[in-house]
Amino acid sequence: MEIHKMxxxxxxxxxxxxxxxxxxxxxxxxxxxxxxxxxxEFTDDxxxxxxxxxxxxxxxxxxxxxxxxMKELAECRRVYGDRYIRLCGFDASHDWESVRISFLVNRPxxxxxxxxxxxxxxGRNLRYTTHAYVADRPEGQRYG
Amino acid sequence: MNAPxxxxxxxxxxxxxxxxxKRMGYWEPDYTPKDTDVIAMFRITPQDGVxxxxxxxxxxxxxxxxxxxxxxxxxLTAAEKYRAKCYRVDPVPNASGQYFAYIxxxxxxxxxxxxxNLTASIIGNVFGFKPLKxxxxxxxxLPVAYVKTFQxxxxxxxxxxxxxxxxxxxxxxxxxxxxxxxxGRNYGRVVYEALKGGLDFTKDDENINSQPxxxxxxxxxxxxxxxxxxxxxxxxxxxTYLNVTAATMExxxxxxxxxxxxxxxxxxxxxxxxxxxxxxMSKWARRNDMILHLxxxxxxxxxxxxxxxxxxxxxxxxxxxxxxxxxxAGTVVGKLEGDPNxxxxxxxxxxxxxxxxxxxxxxxxxxxxxSLNKLMPVASGGIHAGQMHQxxxxxxxxxxxxxxxxxxxxPMGIQAGATANRVALEAMILARNEGRDYVHxxxxxxxxxxxxxxxxxxxxxxxxxxxxxxxxxxAPDFVPSLSVSA
Lengths: 144, 486
Prior knowledge:
heterodimer, A: alpha+beta
């Protein structure tokens, strides 16, 4: 039996093999064809409720060319390639005004994952805390 | 069809005795509904020998101000305003003896923000009225002025996705099986395996409340251990719909409070608790940052037969007003009733801000939702990974796909079943976004994804020939007419 390797499954393609740049470009084109603004965000704190990843610049509202977006990704990877990077497609249409698609485009080499802390509470209740193993080190020194 | 008005006016109108409904002012073919009127469209089947116009006027009368005889006390009121007015009667295409009756109701007839009050009029006494063989409420137009008196979905699709941090694909769920008999500890095992394997949600079944084999606190405690453990194992938000349905509101509040205390992001109720209880739970959910799932238990007793009852499209509208966040709305391809066009109509009612009239989908009115939150439809019952391309095509992206048997029945276990579904879904979304003809190439896309995912290969093998092809009992009355141009 295969030993299970931790792999964070946030984003909408985490159960597929990591996307190639050609595959990412096709998804970028999909976003642009829909009129969505593409952006990249990165973090080394992958807690499932860490909403505000750092922004790699502003969402590219005016960029309509997938090649340009891929250049930004290459640049972001060059600087923050040791961290998680996600692509977001943002739809500003009335009655949505939020993210429409989001998926990982870069992962750290090793993903130690999370410890679940349980503290005993009243009766049989437990208080749960999801604790990223890497989070004990300061930001910027967590992976690699 | 539309006979001229025969309304009696002045002193004659109030002479004691019995008068035909159409003469009392309930048949007004020249009336133009106001923007603020509630409009109901009924399918009426009059008893033999009953004039369809009189039958339709009687429905208007009995669902608003009328009683069986003239009463002088009408003259103490602005009676003409309060009378519902049937303004149109059409024969139903290809259904002899049935008629569509359009009835307009003044907004003042209804208490703001109360489904109970709305339904007490519209589907009250009138459904047992003797001159009719059968009566079905097909659709309603709810004016913006009335829509705005309701809270609407406690969370809504957009905020639910933001809270869960899940975008760009349908959500995946499974109902824990067997639906009855598991102990709390064994039940939580199913939840953990399914969530860790790749599902976003698991779900209590409609009849899991608090029985001798598993009391509710046991279930809640073990389920939340499972949710938290799966969340830590995957780094992804997970949830389980804890069914808080109970005998009294006090019991339901107690269960919902406990779910909140344990950190659950979602609770669940059944349609059988009633409209008022549903609205109460919606307000509770809004106050407590909770997603509210509704199982439509019981609806088929009155939605399924075409001649009598209430169409599910009306129930969907009421539930959007009442304020649930999830509603089971059909799968088309699964084991439960669902004509594709009719189901499409239900989904549009849940998810769009404006529904244009679309007779082919059974939608009889333009409906403006005035930015009321959207409600996530749930597809559940007899679906499996091999249908992923059809499900995505028929149901779209903002939907929860629930594979109960299709997860738990996997030959290699629950985690493998969950993984198979998630991989199939992600592969299909990827292909769709790449511009591929995924509906036709679906089987190839799945076979390709299965090359690197053994659980998916096994799922495709075991369920490859499963389909539920039965004729629908509730299909639209209007079909697109083909025109041939030279």
